[in-house]
Each structure stands twice: as C-alpha cells, then as structure tokens.
Amino acid sequence: MNLYGHAGQWLMMDCGITFNSPLCTEAESKTSGLHKHDVVAADPWFISQRKKQLAGIVITHAHEDHLGALPYLWRRFKCPVYTTKYTAEILRRKLSRGGFNDKIPIIEISSGERVNIGEFNVEWLSITHSLPEPHAFVIRTSAGSVFHTADWKIDPAPVTDKPFNANPFKLLGKKNILAMVCDSTNAMREGHSVSEQQCYKGLKQAAVKAKGRVVVGCFSSNIARLITLAKIAQETGRYFALFGQSLQNTVGAAKATGHWPDNLPVVDAFNAGYLLPNEVLAVATGSQGEPRAALNQLAKDTYRNVSLDEGDLVIFSSIVIPGNEKPIENLLKAFQARKIKTLTADESELPIHASGHPCQEELKQMYEWVRPQIAIPTHGEVEHMQANADMASLSHVPRSLTGLNGDLFKLAPEVKLVKQAVKAGRIALQQS
Predict the structure, then answer these.
(1) Which of 72, 177, 240, 385 could form a disulfide with 377 if both were Cys (CB 3.0 to 4.6 A apart)?
(2) Domains, the chain, ranges and CATH?
(3) CA distances from 64 to 15, 221, 411 (A)
(4) Nearest of 218, 219, 228 to residue 198 by alpha carbon
C-alpha cells in the first residue's frame, strides 16, 4: 500500500495482504513470538481518515500482496479502482465471494494508456513478471514525475504476454524522472533472474522420470508456471488437474481474458482420483506449508478427491518465503514418511522455479535506462532496500532515500525523508 501525495490529493498504489503473519515486522516477530493471523494487511488508518482526498486506487497486478485487501478495505475508501482487464477479472471474482462486486467502480485500463486521476496523470507501461498484464507506472504531476516499478524483472521469455521491451524505459531516461520507486526483493542476488521459460526443462525432466502421480506445488497466481505444467502434462501423456479453489479461480480468470491457451485442457480434480497414477499431473495449493491448503491435506491423506501413494512425486516449484521454513519442513517430512518422493528447487539440477523479481544486474540496467534523480527502494527488508540503493549508486543515480513503513519521502520542491511521519502498522482481516 503505497501513497503518493500532491496538491492536496492522494493516489494509492496497490492494497495487498499477506498470510499467516504477526501484526509486526519479521524482525520483531522473531524476538516477541507474537500470535500469527490468517490474513494481514497494511493499516489504512492514515488514508481512511482522508478518504475525501483519495483520488483513486491503482492496482499494478493481480498478486494477493498487491490487491488482496481491497475486498476487505474498500468501504473505508470508496473511490474508483484502476487496473487492467486480467487484474480486474481476478478482483471481481474475489469481490463476488464477498457479495459486493457491483459496488466497487473498477475502471479497466489498456497498456500504454495515460489517465488523469485527480491531480495525477498516470501512464501504464508494460513490464514482465510472473503473471499476465503486470505494469510499471509513470506518475506525472506539476511538481515532477515518479517512475513506480511495482513487481518486475527483465524476462525475454515470460510465457504469458510479450517479452520484455526496453524501449519505453530507455525513453524515460530523456524525460527527467524525479524519482524511481523500485522493487528490492532480489536486490541481494547477483547476476540476472532466471527466465520463466527456463523452468520448462527441469519440470519436464522430473515428470518424465516419475512413475506415479506428479503433484506440483506453486503459487496459485503464477499463470505462466501453470501453462508450462499444462503443456508438460500434454506432452507426457498425463491429464492436467488443479487441486485448490484459488488455482481454479486463477485459471478461470485466465480463460475469461484470453490468457489460457485453448488447446490445454484441465480435468476436474474429482476425476483425477479415478485415473491411473501415471496419468496424473496436478498442481496443488500450499507450497508454503499453509495448513488448510491442498498439499497439507494430501500429506495427511485427507484430500477429498485424491490419495497419494508410495512412489508418487511432489515437486515444490517455489521458493521458501522467510518465516515459512518450519511449515514447509514439516510438509516435506510428512510426505517422506509415507514414502512419497519430493523435489525442491534447491535439489533440482535444472531450474524448476523462477523468481518474478530483478536481481542486481537488472536493477543496474533499469537505473541506467531511466536515470532518475532519486532512487527510492521499496518492497523488501532493510538489507534488501540498502542493496538496491547500492545498485543505484553504482548506476550513477545521484541520491537514494531508504526508509521504513510510515516514513514520508518529500521529493519536491525540497528532498527530505521524514521518519515516522504517519501511523503505520498491520491489521488482521477476518476471512469471510
């Protein structure tokens, strides 16, 4: 939840959630051991007190950590929501489950379009990530222009959408960008991120070698990975199934918006239970060890549609998000105790997971293209944001501002970081 202020108005960029988290930072939770909540969002107190000044909400892409809180919090804002077709479809499906999808004005924007939202002129720039229609943004005001990257990487073969196009970002280098607010998730990783298409060989190799069922755990929003797995199922003579409601919703949205290939069928999860083991390739929710998800139920043999047997293979096509080490370890042990084979990204010789975020060489490249006057690292822990600032410095960006939640970054007419200018924190949300 990022807020941009200008001329007495505010613009919100994203409104996301996290899962199974405490109402404090990761560092604080390690020392305090506070209770974890199922769904957690940024505390919207500051902007909800100023909702008449909130011109609109822009959703950058369809990941839960960028849009998941809107169904819970929109009533506190009551302003228009701007996003692209696929993200709007995901959002509407979430809203319909809450029963008020018609109440929220969702304005669909096309890639490359420029829209006036109150005092802000916002331009949608296509970028690559790990799902359809991710975008970066130029936010123009009379005081200056800010480039907001959202989540991104430089991917020449993203599976969904077109390959990364550098030209729009090279053009920004001539447009006197005041500040670049940039994703720091992988800023401590050297080199270049793995392309999404590179996961194909590793995943297919594992599926070809498997004698029994193949179940793959990955993030349910990663349509690119799901398309890759559906192709592998088809090529290896297996039926492709989805275990988990969020996966079914994601694929349904992709089909509705033209992002799912027509020649890749999906069988019902119920029918997968009647197929021979070597005929099944399924994707399951719960790669982070979530207790209610399909993988956990499969490990306990309580999943209603399918039971796994000795010799079946469970692939974790995902990373371990910090804080989830123990649940994932317990999940692996539960499968292994039943002699069900497992394969994690760390154990695979070939890539079976690709991050959707830029590594150091990509950060440096983007800074060199855009040439902002100020770098503002975001989306990461303190050490990630500092590493991002270091990349900006190596790319000859004159100045960097690194701060924490609640800090105010003044960009014009003077540049200043005001520590803890507003109340910030986290709130627990009640699942419907």
Answers:
(1) 385
(2) 2-192+356-428 (3.60.15.10), 196-344 (3.40.50.10710)
(3) 9, 8, 29
(4) 228
Residue 332 structure tokens: 């692996």
Alpha-carbon gap, residue 13 to 147, rounded angstroms: 12
Task: In whole angstroms, give the CA distance from residue 158 to residue 426.
Answer: 33
Instruction: Reduce the DSSP state of residue 117 to 3 states and report it.
Output: strand
Coil, strand or helix at 215: strand
